[in-house]
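Working notes for the structural subgroup meeting. M.R. asked for a predicted model of this chain before we commit to crystallization trials. I am recording the input and output together here so anyone reviewing the notebook later can reproduce the run.

Input as submitted:
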Amino acid sequence: MAPKKAEIRRTEDEGPKVYLKLDVSWHRPLLASNETTVVVAYTFPGEREAVQSEPVAADTPSAAGFTRTFVRKQGLLLLHQLLNSPLLLKLLKGDGSTALASASLDFAPLAQGVDQFSAACLKLSGADDQTAVAADAAFTVKVQLLQETGTPREDPLISPGKPPAKGAPTAPPPGIVDLSQLTLGPCTLVPSDQAAGAQVVQLHLQSAGPLPDTLQAAATAAGGALTVSCGLHLSGSPAGPLICLVPAGVSIQDGQLQWAADPTKFFVPGTAIISLKAAVEANQPLYLELARFLAPGTDTLTDPAFEAYHGLAAVPVAAQLSEPGQKVANLQAVVSMSYLEGQQAGSLAHPGLPRPDPPANPKAKPIEEAPAASTDGSLPPCAWAKAQTTITAMLQLQDPLYPPWQPPPMPAVSLQQLIPKRQFVKAEDKPTASQVFQAQVQSAVKQLAAEYHKMFGAEEGGESTTADPHQAAARRKQLVFELNKNGQYLRLKEQLKAAELYNKLYMHLATDMHMALNQLVSNKPSVAKAATVKGSNKGPEGPTRHQLAVLKGLADEAELTGDQAAAERYHQERTLAPANPQVWYDYGTFCLRTAKQGQAEQCLKEAVAIEPGHKAALLALAALLWHVGLHTDAAYLDQAETVLHAAKEAAADDTAVWALLSLVYESMAPRRLSEHRNAAFEMRRLGKVHNRRSLAGNPYLQVALLLLDLQLGECAQQALQAAGKGQADEEVPGLEMALCCSKAASLTGDATGALEAAKEAARAADPQDVRPRIILGNLYWAAGRASQASKEYQGALRAGPTSCPLDLYLRLGTTFLAEGEFEYARNVYVQACAVRPCASTWLGAGIAYLRLQDYDNADVALMEANVMNNRHAEVWGYLALLALHTGQAAEAEQATMWALRCELCNTQLLDEIGEQCMTLGRYDKARDVLRQSLVIKDTPHARWLLGDALCELGDLVQAQSQYQAVQSDAATTAERTHALQQLLFIHRRRGADNEAAECSKALAALQI
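Returned structure, recorded in token form:
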């Protein structure tokens, strides 16, 4: 193919005349060489002859210049020509023979819809090293666009000038136009509605290959008249193609199309830039249209196979153009469909490259025959797609779609202002009774020492106190006599008697006193005093690290079993640990999962107050504040921003922090959209820098999992939407997305959507992946469909028992117990004890063994459960029931006491314990247990049993009230019948014949 001149497809008829007035001037010497005169020359786009100034002195310091005016047709065709033909200003020798220096003028400002612009200080560059350009030498060019405001004349008035010489062309010199008789006003090349936000875009086609086998033969048949055109489209946009061109210099080399090195500039209106931005934000591709054409004026040739060489290639650009400050996108895409297929699929909403007109010459020779039409009416195949032709190009915008990246601004309120750091001041320990007594002993010792030295100090004379024992005894006797004589011994005795001393405390204090007195004789340090100093610094201690771990396990277990009250008690016990942020974080996330958002906020803020850099607490608190800001008060969004800035400082390279920050900024739209994009860009950049490929490389999915764990379903859905819009390297597998969408839909109350997403995940999952089955089972369980949940749970157990969570085992075992399948329940619980050992699994195993009347194994399982959690009320309850079944009354009484003390709330178990007590004749114990059951929940069955226990105890009045309460709508026929029979017995025994007769009638009515 021969190189062809670059063209632009005409999109409108030529417009009216426009006058382009160029004023070139300079204000300083141009050269520092010995040249005497120079001329300034340029060739205006579309002109053949150059425009020259009059010769001027090269070193003249005065202002100089010249003006020329050119006439063109107004419109985008002229703009395209000017954009791709910069004005080259040349500085020539005075005779015009040699170029000395040059400067270039770009007409790009005309694309902004202006009627004039000035380019000042166009620097000159020497043509070679020998040319000495003067310092600060520069041109100033002013460009004006004018048009006639009155009735346009057919031709501009040409200045006659000198008469042309004989044989010379009659046309005037270029740029010589007489405007004196014209009424002119400013004009623009671009309409105002298209100029706003418009850009000058460059497209550089580089190569395309491999090529269809028949293309070379067609090019040869065309004799160099064949060229390849290209268009760039927005997906489905009514704005039309961004660019359509016939590129210059296309040729076939080594089986590929090669284009000239220079890119082509195009004017793209503001509406198209807006559509491009929308396509980038929606992660939609651009479409490269590729077609071959015969050069214009080729009447002897035709191309019937045009549609076979008219294809489309989808080009992803969002990953590049969505980055802040990015202006260049490297395009590479494979032609995958024909143009007609793209139109049918809705990829293009606007015509692209024009179809060639039918040949005017009926004898025109085809360069290639059209492919045979298909018998089924399908579209002809695309030769580019069949050859898998890949197009390589470069797209460069004038301005980036998004401003260059900047770090998010610091929030108005700092974390320290929002959540002041907790200052722990050690409280002074109050002296213990032992310490007070020791102080009194020390005071008494000092007084005794003073008396001793007063009496015997002169006799010692500094000698050792190890004197004769008889002498020491005499001194002690004399000392006691003097103390009794002056009453000082009595005062010391009363002083030490002020404290009430008993048993071990008295012995301890007496030892301290003896040690203090012994110091009077020996100068050894006081052991008691040293111990006192060491112990005085000890404050109240909270749970140990091991105890915290045990309590955390118990809290998690209680939460899974649905005992939220017990779980909260365990978490509250853990808060006794001083200055432990993890404890408050665990408590806060528990409160979030149980819909106590206000309490969760306080707990998480306490964790942050203790440790401002606790990343997990900061993320959870920010997620909660984001949720509240979306649904309650937008001011909480600013607080979430503050918290996330602190998390960013604590973990600057954590992509999840930046992902959550971008979501918070997005919720502040439209005022924080720029920050949203910057945060998202930094998130992606960090992911690439640290090569983090976990969770499919998408930090938004990581945030979604955090939000799902915190039971913030609507926020999780927003994170999942952001994850679904991820770029090619951030795509989330369909299975992961379906699982998360199912959980999010369940949290937001969309049971149908949750079930559909879970079924979609099950279809996409590997058979060994238990997660879809578990989610399906959980959804069925929540909907009350226990049998279907059991089926899914059993399938998950068969696929991966070690991957199943604790709640699956507990729910499946509970279902089997409720259905009376005790052996299946035993097997499930025993397997759970091996995989997830805890008090609940051992309790389930004990219940199953108890129902199977395997009391030995039941005792082993229940005792193991009691060891793992001796505050589990149901464990004590079933231990009591087991003891009753085995006739161990004392053990049953003790276990029942502990069950009630641990606040047993299972009324069915309490009723069973009461009934078993009556079987063993322990009616008083049965009465106490059944009354506790009625306090928790009033049921006809419990009142029936309590009435029987009271009858056996002889309390007929109370029994009668219980039987009468059974006569309610909630009672079954059997319960009402039994109650009436007991009432009939009581009335007859008390001689109440009328009441007995009424009971008899009621019984007869029930038996009908």
